[in-house]
Amino acid sequence: MSRVTMKAMIHRTVVFALIWAVLSAGDPAGQVLGLIVVPATVWLSVALLPARNPLKLWRLTGHTPRFLVGSVAGGVDVARRAFAPSMPLNPGWLRVPMQLGDGARVALGAELSLMPGTLAAGSDGSVLLVHVLDLDAEPGRAVEAQAAEIAALTDPAPEGP
């Protein structure tokens, strides 16, 4: 097993264990079940999405607050638009070229879909297809900024065999 795969398995174990702890709300029976579910989930995730660019977990400490603030600000903006009599919306599609690996592109799509007003609807090769509520707000810049943050969470692709 390569060093990159082992590192990814450790990172995924930490992330999945934290998610499981939150979902099980500290219930002892749930924690016992987690001893089976978490390793199975890690194995499945490595089998389906092999580690190429390991996640730098320490960088999540800087990314998470920005994500939460952006989610709240986006939610307030969507609510304002929904309740405004003039309904200031200009929905449309963005085709955003991406230089991210498969895992990073999936993470970006998931994050964009959690942000109010945007929905990653798929990809066409290296182009991410994003539906937005307001094209006038220049959402392309925000998507590119999120892509840069996601890219910063991964190491560069390892060179050599």
Keywords:
three-stranded antiparallel β-sheet; 161 residues; mainly alpha; 3 strands; 5 helices
Question: How is this structure best described in words?
Answer:
The chain is mainly alpha-helical. The protein has two domains: about 5-50, no CATH class; about 55-150, no CATH class. It has helices spanning about 5-25, 30-50, 55-85, 100-115, 140-150, and strands at about 90-95, 120-125, 125-130. The chain has a three-stranded antiparallel β-sheet, with helices on one face. A hairpin with a 2-residue loop joins strand 2 and strand 3.
Structural class: mainly alpha
Q: What portion of the residues fall into strands of 2 or more residues?
A: 5-15%
Span of the ends, CA to CA: 13 Å
Q: So what's the overall shape?
A: globular
Strand line-up of the largest beta sheet: 1-3-2
> SSE string, helix = H, strand = E?
HHHEHEEH
Q: Averaging pLDDT over every residue, what do you get?
A: 81
Question: How many E-type strands?
Answer: 3
Sketch the major β-sheet: 3 strands, antiparallel
Gyration radius, to the nearest Å?
18 Å
The count of domains is 2
DSSP helix count? Answer: 5
Helix percent band: 55-70%
> Would you identify the regions where 5 or more consecutive residues have pLDDT less than 50?
157-161
